[in-house]
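A note from the maintainers: we've had questions about how concatenated examples are separated. There is no special marker in the raw files; a new sequence line simply starts the next protein. For clarity in this README we add a label.
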Amino acid sequence: MTDEDRPWLVVGLGNPGREYAGNRHNVGFMVADLLAARVGAKFGRHKRAVAEVAEGRLGIGGPRLVLAKPLTYMNLSGGPVTALAQFYKIPLAQVVAVHDELDIGYGQVRVKLGGGEGGHNGLRSMTRSLGVKEYVRVRFGIGRPPGRQDPADYVLSDFSSAERKELEFLVDRAADVVESAITRGVEWTQNAYHGG
């Protein structure tokens, strides 16, 4: 199998369970759900990894996608990601993590290849487990917590009612960024999307 034939692994980072579903920390799950809907795929439990997985193609004859939502908690996301990358024989440069980002203002979506973890436990777990930092990150800005609120409490709280008014549009935009990074590359996508 050539690299062109190998699927892309798109990992939405979040926490399993209904009580976390609307949290800022779960925006990766929201983007993964939308991408699955776009490719007409449904999530189901994977036999080799503690994750829900949906498979499909980006357009007719387009790249194969393996969409994943780890069912471990955020801090242990790396294990399922590594298991899936090995199972599907996915090159690490074709792994995309979609995650919330405190250091970017709400409503901004950024993409980059590699870099640090910025205190994000899901990324830290992925980097430790994969053994590399050079995977694609689609960063969904949630902004900094107001006042003296602890960032750990902030990411585990739901989006505000004002934020929710825009959330659907922003999740849609983040899904566009994921698709663009896969089909056109990170650099093209940065040039196209980082203006807004």
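[label: protein 2]
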Amino acid sequence: MIINILAGGPQELLPNLAEYNQNGCLWIGVDRGVFTLIQRGIQPHIAFGDFDSVSQEELREIEAKVSKLCRFKPEKDETDMELALNWALDQEADRIQLFGATGGRLDHFFANVQLLTKPVLSGISKEVFMIDRSNIVFLKGPGKHSLKKNSRYHYVSFVPVGGAVEGLTLDGFKYPLNDCHIPLGSTLCISNELISNCGTFSFSEGILLVIRSSDS
């Protein structure tokens, strides 16, 4: 099962949500993202937020159309996105996709990137992806991982998170690496490209932020 979470980031950065509205997937609305789903004809399964970014009229429409509404005070220890992701991680989902989580306020963006560490640090096998019109972002822990070529997202970047990455090896890429030490703050692995239909990246220690990007 796939769980899609839509937050209230700038709508101009959203991909075509209809492409991700597959049979059997669940949609979670986060704050203003709930109203966006309703506007686009997608029924939210559940909604989270303090709803301080919607009007009273919009909130009434949300209350009328969403049966599972988890409303919180603005003064709380978690962001609305974290509350939604925590719920999603507790479900029987194979893949979780975050939308509306980039652009706009930088504090929200960096907080959302930090949230990607939750399953990796907890040893949870669920995959969590942050997706916008031009990027797919996800985290990986040590091991060997495959990556298929994607004509939409041509560039691939690897960024160490929280500390150095040890033993990074890239196979099937324009700029290969073999057993490299990548310190925190390095830009060595920015804007690489797959030259094979499927490449692999592997490392023995650390956490990698993987960013697949397009120019559009």
